[in-house]
Specification:
By secondary structure, this protein is an alpha/beta fold. The protein has eleven helices and eight strands. The chain has an eight-stranded mixed beta sheet with strand order 3-2-1-4-5-6-7-8, sandwiched between helices. Helix 7 packs across helix 11. The chain starts with a strand and ends with a helix.
């Protein structure tokens, strides 16, 4: 499968590297586009095909991943429209807030398109990817889900939930990283060197997540296992809740979802 990634930014490159590292594609079968010529030269040295022309990049592709910013989408769709073969090519969009109707209006109502909302953990094969589609066949969906499953896990959702997926899945990486950073800063406060504190906090967070995914349990079930009457764990948890830990995260996720839903509209 020849793959084109339009927009080799953070997500685009995480996708390209994830495809390669998972064995789903070879670098020579991936074409990358980016406005920065020097960045493209570096990627070409690594073995990718590169070009600054989105129109040229899509011509021979079987699957086209669109990874540009919302404010760049209209211009890109206008550029690639003459080169898109709606009978042959499958479009996969990771553009925040852009409904599949936007692509159908620009490229043709019958275009096969799948929206994907992964996160940057694709590079280490630990992404969570949410998928929805329009006009895509079952074969298309299984193909793309199979690709993203090599880079973590994926789930099929209704398109109306994609903005919510952006907040919980894509933005969520930053939210949990900030929580880990806060934990490591607390570790420094109680006596650890910064590097040790971060290592302990990150591995502990990984362990907590793995408990849920492996045991298929609810967080409170695992919390109950480490809280004892008058113990230090419950004391710490209650203090965090008094300071608004859960409330702050819930409010942040809701705000991110609202903004994600309006990003394309504001572009």
């Amino acid at each position: 499968m020849k793959t084109t990634i339009l927009g080799a930014g953070n997500i685009g490159m995480a996708l390209a590297e994830g495809l390669v590292e998972s064995g789903a594609a070879k670098k020579g079968d991936i074409t990358l586009t980016k406005r920065n010529q020097k960045a493209l030269e570096a990627l070409q040295i690594q073995g990718y095909h590169t070009t600054q022309s989105n129109r040229e990049a899509v011509k021979d592709a079987d699957t086209v991943f669109i990874c540009v910013l919302p404010q760049q989408l209209n211009e890109l769709l206008e550029e690639i429209k003459p080169s898109i073969d709606i009978q042959k090519q499958l479009i996969v969009s990771v553009v925040t807030g852009a409904h599949t109707n936007v692509f159908r209006a620009a490229l043709g109502d019958n275009i096969r398109i799948i929206r994907a909302m992964p996160n940057t953990a694709m590079k280490v094969r630990q992404s969570m990817t949410c998928l929805s589609s329009a006009n895509a066949t079952e074969k298309d969906t299984l193909l793309i889900q199979g690709i993203f499953d090599t880079m973590g896990q994926s789930i099929i959702i209704e398109e109306e939930m994609m903005s919510a997926a952006t907040a919980l899945c894509a933005c969520g990486i930053a939210f949990f990283l900030r929580a880990i950073r806060a934990a490591s800063q607390g570790g420094v406060e109680i006596g650890f060197h910064a590097g040790d504190a971060l290592r302990i906090a990150a591995q502990t967070a990984l362990g907590a997540a793995t408990l849920l995914t492996e045991n298929k349990t609810h967080p409170e079930q695992e919390i109950d296992k480490v809280t004892s009457p008058k113990g230090c764990t419950i004391a710490g948890l209650n203090e965090m809740e008094h300071q608004g830990l859960s409330s702050a995260m819930i409010k942040g996720i809701k705000l991110s979802a609202t903004i994600a839903n309006n990003l394309y509209k504001q572009s």
